[in-house]
Specification:
The protein is mainly α and 67 residues long. It has 5 helices and 2 strands, in the order βαααααβ. It has one domain: 434 Repressor (Amino-terminal Domain). The longest helix has 11 residues.
Amino acid sequence: MIKCNLSKQMGINKLTIQDVHEKTGLNRNTISNLYHESVKRVDYDTMNKLCKLFNCQLGELFEYIPD
């Protein structure tokens, strides 16, 4: 299972979904779905923008948890 840690990163940086939308240009629904971990796939551009915003590595946003 892949876990998305966007909500954790947003909490650390005290950002709302609207803040992330404004700073990255990503669709609010995309951010909301990642925040609530209800996405099926994420494209490279989205991951790149989030890593750039949070100045982090991909492994800090997404992690693999064995079943």
